[in-house]
Amino acid sequence: MKTPSRRHILTAFGAAVGAGALAACTTEAGPSTSPGGGQPDASVGGDGPHTSAGAIGRHPPTSDVVADGKQALERLLAGNARFVAAQEQDLDEGIARRIAVSKGQHPFATILGCVDSRVPIELVFDQGLGDLVVVRSAGGALDRSVIGSLEFGVTELHTPLLLVLGHQRCGALDATIKALDKPTSHPGKLGYLVDTLAPAVRQTFGKPGDRLTNAVHANVTHVLAELRQSPVIAPLEKSGKLQLTGAYYELDTGKVTLEP
Ligand SMILES: [Zn+2]
User: Fold this and answer.
1) Which of 9, 13, 15, 58 could form a disulfide with 33 if both were Cys (CB 3.0 to 4.6 A apart)?
2) Are residues 206 and 186 in the same domain?
3) CA angle (231 as vertex; 149, 202 as ends), nearest 5
4) Does residue 100 sit in the same domain as residue 136?
5) pLDDT score of 97
6) Which residue in 249, 75, 87, 236 sits closest to 158, CA to CA?
């Protein structure tokens, strides 16, 4: 069991302070709180009501929290470092944060991940309500809804980063390898998933190393290439307004590493 984080305490306290202070929060705090979550707030400690931004929560829903994809990536990796060290600070789903983002959102990254129960995106990056646009499908398989959802994140919500996150021991890619080794019929739409993931898996046939790990990395590369075909995503990347990045999540350590 995890004890309540400092930020949980902050947000609970912030809710009691009220909406007036909340408004101040959205204007006072800002980039200084990111990337990396910043330093502990000296105003915390239960010594009376505060109206400072820090007393409410440290990531207001403002669009200027990150300037570009590079900063967005730094913020994600800093959050992951906290997750790895079990020192989460910013996983803010508290009442004050919920109120703060209820009228608008300015997420700073769009992420495509797998449905795997062990890779919950907000948790592994230590981010809270309103921080991330998350799209998940088995193996990160792309279809029209997935691509459209990612396009929504980068165009309508203007995130400067689009991250594709593969992960260690991905069951969907493992099933695809097995299906290609020994063709079988799959019920429902499972066959569709295998067919969608198969092109990336085939690229790894005959390569040295662990087959599944190879397939995960190849799939991230494949997905990124596919997304760069999008008439919505491609021009954004070309203009420098959007950064596309691949990454790999290791189940054993919780660590996210960027793909070369
Ligand atoms: Zn998976």
Assistant:
1) 58
2) yes
3) 75
4) no
5) 87
6) 236
CATH classification at residue 161:
3.40.1050.10
**Contact at 8 Å (CB) between 104 and 82?**
no
Ligand 1 center from residue 111 Cα (angstroms): 14
Q: Find the 193 Cα to ligand 1 centroid distance in Å.
A: 12
Domain residues for 166?
Answer: 107-260
C-alpha 258/C-alpha 248 separation (Å) is: 6
Cα 173 to middle of ligand 1, angstroms: 7
Between the CA of 92 and the centroid of ligand 1 the distance, in Å, is: 25
Mean pLDDT value across the chain: 81
In the reported structure, the alpha carbon of residue 230 is separated from the centroid of ligand 1 by a whole-number distance in angstroms of 23
Q: Is residue 69 part of a domain?
A: no
- pLDDT > 70: what percent of the chain? 75
139 C-alpha to ligand 1 centroid (Å)? 4
Q: Are 126 and 151 in contact, with CB atoms under 8 Å apart?
A: no
Stretch 104-124: mean pLDDT? 97
CA atoms of 60 and 37, how far apart (whole Å): 12
Taking 70 as the threshold, does the pLDDT of residue 64 lie above it? Answer: no
Of the candidates 75, 105, 135, which is a domain's last residue? 105
- pLDDT of 91 reads 72
Q: Which of 105, 133, 155 is the last residue of a domain?
A: 105
Q: Residue 255 C-alpha to ligand 1 middle, in angstroms? A: 15
- Binned at pLDDT 50, 70 and 90, residue 37 comes out as very low
